[in-house]
Amino acid sequence: MQEDKTTEMTVRRSWWKIGGNGETNGSTWLVRGVILLVAIAVVVGVFFGMYEPSATAQPGEVLLGFPEDWVVKWELIKWVNDGLDWIVIKGDVFFSGIRDGVQQYILSPLRDFLTMQPAKSIGAIHFGFDWVRACWIIVVLLAGFLMWYLYRKWWVGLLTLVALGALYYWIPWLVVVALVGLVAWRVVSLKLSIVVVIFLIAMNFFGMTDLAMETLAVTFTASLLCIVMGVPLGIIAATSNRFDNFLRPILDGMQTMPSFVYLVPALMLFGLGMVPAVMATLIYAIPPIIRLTNLGIRQVDAQVVEASKSFGSTAMQLLVKVQVPLALPTILAGLNQTVMMALAMVVVASMIGAKGLGVEVLTGIGRINPGQGLIGGISIVFLAIILDRISQGFAKQPQTSVTG
Amino acid sequence: MSEEIGISCQDVWKVFGPNPESVFDLVDSGASKQDVLEQTGHVIAVKEVSFDVHENEIFVVMGLSGSGKSTLVRCINRLIEPTKGKIAVDGMDIAAMNDNELRELRRHKLSMVFQYFGLLPHRSVEDNVGFGLEIRGEHGRKKEQRVAEAIEQVGLKGWEKSRISELSGGMQQRVGLARALAVESEIILMDEPFSALDPLIRRQMQDEFINMRSEMKKTVVFITHDLLEALKLGDRVAIMKDGEIVQIGTPEDIVGQPADEYVSEFVKDVPRGRVIPVRSIMEEPIVVVRSQQDIETCVREMGDKRTPVAFVVGPFNRIMGILTMRDAIDADRKGLKTVGEAVREEFASVTPDSMLEDSLPLVAEGNLPVAVIDEEKHLLGVINRATLIQAMQAEDTTENNNQHNNNHNNHNNKKE
What we know:
The structure holds two protein chains of two kinds. Chain A is mostly helical. Chain A is built from 19 helices and no strands. The radius of gyration of chain B is 27 Å and the shape is elongated. Helices cover 41% and strands 22% of the residues of chain B. At the A-B interface, helix 1, helix 15, helix 16 and helix 19 of A face helix 4, strand 6 and helix 6 of B.
């Protein structure tokens, strides 16, 4: 027994020196090596087993150039397409469910709200549950809370509630401009507020406001889904190195892949319209919020975490009371990036039927009408600046204002 | 009560590395910490440490950086899992606890204060202080009351709503301390709580900590790299070196009888006058007379024993005053009869627990020995100038040699 232990230790010791990593056990390296070799063997075996080089390839030919016969490009393409077809057919229920859900419960109400549909459709009959009204109520409550928070006076909040409630049936465009301007002023500065108001009025002159709101609806929907999925993923990645290592190359891939590539599969899975645009945008825009959530939580001062544990906090208490609040500025910086990437992608996604400013640019190009393209482009820039500065302003707010 | 054991550590080990258990055989076969590190890459942070902390005691663990003291204190509340050994808190074996029990232990029995405070920067002072209570699900008036009390205890009243970033380092550590006090745990673990503070603030905090401690009963495990702080605050002090405890004892023991070279090297720098109590150097008074005795005999006795002063005791052996040779002769000439009539009631005296340094001015001022008396005014002994100087001399003779050493230590402290 004693002898056994000693030999075992000698083996570990030598592996240890190769590994050199404080946490890695010697035997893990052995296991990893074996797994890697087996994986390589399987891949090579499958490759040569299924696509045996034909007799025409002479042994010496390999040295001159890669034999034409070995190229499997078209086979691979067919594989992928067949696979996608299979998914489209088999997963129809699943994907159309997602499509309908996103369309009905997030996208349409948001768009209706942003394009001031409630005001335009007074008396219109809504069938089923009135999502527009539900959204309005939530927005009104949130705005009331925000005003109360900013001014610390209960009557300011109440006044906002009443005023916005009344606006449900009548939103003059001037009020929208004024509201956005007010938010920009309170969150960032008076200077930005003036710029924002000018931009919004200019967009009205361009006749682009409704298109901009369509774009915004897709952007916000995608960003919302990014938060819902990205923040939890980032938190898991922060707590598990293994998951982080697994996730990182995938995120790299998602960010590096040309964004056009997502469009066609999204189209096939979700059909024409806004939802595939939202989905393509989601894939393109989610990496920053995952990465920065992960980073933010990992950067939380170790002694604060230790202190929290020493008072007997559970993992959930630690997360909610310490890690997320302290990581919030970083997470919000990630959100800012995500929103900006989403906006960029929404423009591209107009190619698969996302309405909005992108369509304007696309038509401008298609009709060789540079003026139309430029005005659409400028409107996108205005929208981007407004979104970026205000969301950055939120990220830079002192931490207390966010956690209350 | 004070003899009950609050925390008991037996044969505690902490080894960092991929396979911690594997080093025990090596160590058994005589390998040193350095050997183990070179051969296996394992770091032995805490090695075979055993000690008991009594209830309501301040137990100080002192060691330089890398001596394993911070690891050791984290083993007590299992922020770091000990590799081997038994740690009992109030008789409960903490190594055997599951997650739930451990959490309950941390919530109610143990609290901790950290070197860099570990406060939540996004919360106000009162929300930080209430953190421990919040974690264990308390709320409402009871919580607010506890928080207010704790804030008052550390002297931060009026700062409740302030943000942490608005406070100075010393005040931030007060918040850390209040947070630990608010949960009313029996045991407080303090990991170098004052090390990150400026020297002046540090001394002030130490004094306040001593005051605060005398008002409430807490068992404290206090970690520090500052020997003077250890000797000042500790009821008992454990000196750690390379993960092992080299000596445990009262401050007096540590300075008076260092266990080995390492400790004596350390205590060479210590001003002995601040650590050694008067009790340990006091001597029998040479002449003690009762107040009814006549002056002539007294003068003769002083003359015989060649001492310039007699100590006069009254009923129940309580001291009444002193009678110097000169006073006695004067009184004799004036025709006074008994010692009681001539006694001088103003005289220099110290308590047995006061430090040598405190008695130094008294001894230096008059030419007479200083009386050591207890609370009931019993004469316990006297301090003579010669003995005092001798007792403090160990410091004086070595001071010059240690000047360089001292600077070096200071430098180290700053780096940490």
